[in-house]
Design a protein that fits this description.
Low-confidence stretches: none
Mean pLDDT: 95
Strand order of the largest sheet: 1-2-7-6-5-4-3
CATH class: Alpha Beta
Helix content: 25-40%
Number of strands: 7
Radius of gyration: 15 Å
CATH architecture: 2-Layer Sandwich
Order of helices and strands: EEHHEEEEEHH
Largest sheet: 7 strands, antiparallel
Number of domains: 1
CATH topology: Alpha-D-Glucose-1,6-Bisphosphate, Chain A, domain 4
Shape: globular
CATH superfamily: START domain
Distance between the termini: 21 Å
Length: 173
C-alpha cells in the first residue's frame, strides 16, 4: 500500500494508511480535539451528523522543530479556524464533514489485526490546484498522525509539506 494519494476521479483523491490500532484509539485521534490537534487541528466536534466541527490549524505546533513558516503560509502563522458541517458519524468506522465551501472529506476505519486501515477520501475539489494543495496537505498530516500513533516525534512539518506539494504537481493530472 502506497502512502501517496491517488486521483480516483474528477476532483477526488484517496489515501490509504495502515496505522497502529486499535480502531477506537484511531477514532479518538479523528474526533477528540486535543488528540486531533497533535496531527491536524484542534477544535470542538459535535458527535452527530448535522453537527459542526471547528478546526483550528496551528501547523507550527505539530512538531518540536523550529523551522520557519514558508512565505506562502505566513498568513497562517497565528492559526486559522474554520467551521465545517459533520455529514456522517458512525463510530468507530465512518466520519465525514464538509471542507470549505464545496468539498468533503471522508474517513473510513477498518480493523486489520492489531492495526487499522484508514481510508481518507477528499471529494468535490474544484480545480487541479485544489487537488495538489489538498493532496500535499493530507499526505503531510497523515504522516504526522502515523508518527504520533507510533509514539515518535514528528518530522518537521513545513519542509515535508512543501516537498509533497512539489511531488503532487507531477502526480495530479
Amino acid at each position: 500500500m502506497s502512502n501517496y494519494g491517488e486521483v480516483i476521479g474528477p476532483g477526488s483523491v484517496r489515501f490509504r494508511r495502515v496505522l497502529p490500532g486499535p480502531i477506537e484509539r484511531v477514532w479518538q485521534y479523528l474526533t477528540d480535539s486535543d488528540l486531533r490537534g497533535t496531527w491536524l487541528a484542534s477544535g470542538p466536534m459535535q458527535s452527530h451528523a448535522g453537527g459542526t466541527v471547528t478546526l483550528l490549524f496551528r501547523h507550527q505546533d505539530l512538531t518540536a522543530n523550529d523551522e520557519p513558516i514558508p512565505e506562502k503560509y505566513r498568513s497562517m502563522e497565528n492559526g486559522v479556524a474554520s467551521v465545517y458541517r459533520v455529514i456522517e458519524w458512525e463510530p468507530p468506522h465512518r466520519l465525514a464533514y464538509t471542507w470549505g465551501a464545496h468539498s468533503e472529506v471522508h474517513f473510513e476505519l477498518e480493523p486489520k489485526g492489531r492495526d487499522v486501515v484508514l481510508t481518507l477520501t477528499h471529494r468535490r475539489l474544484a480545480e487541479r490546484t485544489d487537488m495538489i494543495n489538498v493532496s500535499g496537505g493530507w499526505h503531510a498530516h497523515l504522516d504526522v498522525l502515523a508518527e504520533v500513533l507510533r509514539g515518535e516525534s514528528p518530522a518537521p512539518f513545513w519542509s515535508r509539506l512543501e516537498g509533497y506539494e512539489r511531488e503532487y504537481q507531477e502526480r495530479v493530472r
